[in-house]
Specification:
Low-confidence stretches: 38-44
Strand content: 15-25%
Structural class: alpha+beta
Number of strands: 23
Radius of gyration: 34 Å
Shape: elongated
Distance between the termini: 122 Å
Mean pLDDT: 87
Length: about 675
């Protein structure tokens, strides 16, 4: 009995000793072995890092005029830790709310914003009036923890000029934060959202200030451990000319407004006047691809974003009834180019050896293509025309005939492909000369200008039709719908059918023609500069941004000479489609081409592209107005006024849009 009790006591003793040994071992591990780890953790808990944004770089025009800069604004900040340490937090919040005309709840909401640092003063109100600043400074004892600091926000000294090109800055969203977090972005940072602000974000942003501080157990700052000074962002010098840009925007707006007061006599759907709801203008230097002006309408005011835009205001900018003013139609809008595309059809026909430019063609006003009749605008007959005069009067039937002949060439050799493949392939390529020329001039891909969401255009051919119809469930319709038919080619020849281009693509293609055949990537900026002082002092160049030639298009001098004569006639010959728009404006001669593009269920789109001067071109200017009517009556007067501004006439008369003869 006694022996059993001893055994049990021995076992219990062993267990107790084992437990105490494990406890002592754990205590030794925590206090000795892990001492360095816990010390590091404790230090980490005491150290906080605070970031402050750097001054963002300016955006300048080609002459150094600021388009976007930074302006000082007064901001009320609140250091909650100081107020809490004195036990007056709620009292100060109430005083602030009364001073700013808001509720205490709104103040608390701003301080509780998860984007705000717990260890730095929280911005409460931005852009406060001088009298509020004075009151806070004169009553400092009543506002412990409250401070008025001066910071900077985006400013637009010329108003909303070039808004769609410049873009805007706004708070980084969760998707952007995931994409750019490795570049040092944090929640609450501002980031370029569109246009130049987005394209040159890494240049404009600069390096934020980094402040490491030590805090106590209550989260209050004890001392500054390390500070990295902010580095201001670099300035970007654009190729844009602010004066030409302003003239382009004014002229576009005037032309659109004028079109809305013109009766649409050709409209069979009962519309009383043209809608003219949107449009774009692009001006390029054809010698290097520099963008001189880029306008889009409707537009917006980037100053809405400078101090922070409300969700309701942002939604308004994206509603259909506002016609999407944030869209830059110069690079995102897709349009049938209409008769402006005849330039490229002419190049294709001449350089593939399928057209004699001097041969006469009798234009009766209409032509039969298979079982369909295709006609000029208003069925107007032009009599005998050759290539230059067909361009001058914009004879559709002439180019319908060219498109039909090229299709017949393609179809003939397609049938012979089985007997002599190599020879047939070479001849079939001639039948695709329009598409090949369009691709050589950049119409099948984005220009590479660098702006966000640039559209790529569309050059249709049989392969495109096959892809378009590949999901057709009816085998017969799928087979027939995939064929490249005569109607497809004649529509393409006059810039209709399934062909789509952006305004920038069209201007860039004309620029390549104007300079003799070199296609350039449109250039937005010429240099990145060290931050400027705004005191007209020279700024060191960080990096030049030279022109970027894509390559030759294959245009020959003979082809250019024949075509340019027809384009000069369009503005200088009384029979020319744009004669009324350019008559008596003075200055260098403008060569150009009107275009009127039809759209299913929509009114006609008005287009015009001009080159000046024709022999040594310095400018290519194009305009498009959605549902604006004939190119001769709306787009051509817009471009005419812009050329007057380029020639130094800043006070050119307003765009005069009038009902034009039925011609494109």
């Amino acid at each position: 009995m006694i022996e059993g009790a001893r055994v049990r006591l021995t076992v219990i003793g062993v267990v107790v000793m084992f437990l105490f040994s494990a406890l002592f071992a754990r205590l030794w591990f925590l206090q000795v072995a892990s001492e360095s780890n816990y010390a590091a953790a404790a230090a980490s808990n005491r150290i906080r890092t605070v970031y402050e944004p750097a001054l963002r770089g300016r955006i300048l025009d080609r002459n150094g005029k600021p388009i976007v800069e930074n302006e000082p604004v007064d901001v009320i900040t609140f250091d909650r830790n100081k107020a809490m340490s004195r036990g007056v937090h709620k009292l100060v919040v109430a005083r602030l709310a009364q001073l700013l005309g808001v509720t205490p709840k709104e103040i608390e909401h701003r301080m509780d914003d998860p984007r705000a640092s717990s260890f730095a003063p929280v911005p409460i109100a931005t852009g406060i009036p001088p009298e509020v600043r004075t009151y806070v400074e004169e009553h400092e004892p009543d506002f412990p923890g409250v401070q008025v600091i001066r910071t900077a926000e985006r400013a637009y000294p010329n108003g909303p000029v070039a808004a769609n090109l410049i873009g805007y800055v706004s708070e980084i969203n969760s998707e952007e934060l995931r994409a750019y977090k490795h570049q040092g972005y944090r929640q609450g940072d501002l980031i370029g959202k569109d246009g130049i602000e987005q394209t040159f974000e890494n240049v404009l942003r600069g390096t934020p200030r980094k402040l490491k501080v030590e805090v106590d157990s209550r989260g209050r700052v004890v001392r500054t451990i390390e500070e990295r000074k902010p580095v201001a962002g670099k300035d970007v010098k654009l190729t844009l000319d602010l004066d030409v840009q302003r003239m382009a925007e004014q002229s576009l707006a005037q032309g659109m407004d004028g079109a809305r007061h013109v009766q649409d006599e050709t409209d069979k759907q009962g519309f009383s006047s043209y809608r003219a709801g949107a449009g774009a203008v692009v001006a390029l230097d054809p010698n290097d691809g520099s963008v001189i002006a880029m306008a889009s309408n409707p537009t917006y005011d980037p100053r809405q974003f400078a101090g922070g835009i409300t969700p309701e205001e942002f939604q308004q900018l994206n509603r259909p009834e506002s016609n999407f003013p944030l869209v830059n139609r110069a690079v995102q809008g897709l349009y049938a180019p209409g008769s402006t595309f005849k330039l490229f059809t002419a190049i294709a026909a001449l350089q593939s050896g399928q057209l004699d430019p001097n041969a006469g063609y009798y234009d009766r006003g209409c032509i039969d293509i298979g079982d369909q009749q295709r006609c000029n605008a208003g069925k107007t007959p032009h009599g005998t025309v050759n290539l230059p005069s067909a361009l001058t009067v914009s004879s559709d039937t002439y180019f319908y005939n060219v498109g039909r002949d090229m299709w017949q060439h393609y179809n003939t050799y397609l049938k012979e492909k089985d007997t002599n493949k190599d020879a047939a392939d070479a001849e079939i390529a001639k039948g695709y000369a329009i598409q090949n020329t369009a691709k050589a001039f950049g119409f099948d891909r984005p220009t590479g200008v660098g702006l966000p969401d640039e559209a790529g255009g569309r050059v249709p051919d049989q392969l495109w039709k096959q892809r378009f119809n590949e999901n057709d469930s009816d085998p017969r319709q799928k087979r027939e719908g995939s064929l490249w038919l005569p109607g497809d080619n004649v529509s393409l020849a006059v810039g209709q059918g399934d062909l789509l281009v952006t305004p920038l693509q069209l201007a860039s293609g004309y620029a390549a023609f104007a300079n003799g055949g070199t296609l350039f990537t449109p250039r937005l900026a010429s240099a990145v500069l060290e931050p400027g002082t705004g005191l007209d002092q020279p700024q060191p160049v960080v990096r030049d941004l030279p022109p970027q030639p894509v390559g030759p298009t294959g245009l020959t001098p003979e082809t250019r000479r024949v075509i340019i004569d027809g384009l000069i006639g369009a503005t200088t010959d009384p029979s020319g489609t744009a004669y009324a728009a350019f008559r008596g404006i003075g200055g260098p001669t403008v060569a150009g081409k009107t275009g009127t593009a039809e759209g299913s269920g929509k009114q006609d789109t008005s287009l015009f592209v001009g080159i000046s001067p024709p022999d040594q071109p310095q400018y290519v200017v194009m305009a498009v107005v959605e549902e604006g009517g004939f190119g001769a009556s709306v787009a051509a007067p817009i471009v005419s006024r812009i050329f007057q501004g380029i020639d130094g006439n800043a006070n050119a008369a307003s765009v005069q849009v009038q009902p034009a003869p039925i011609q494109d």
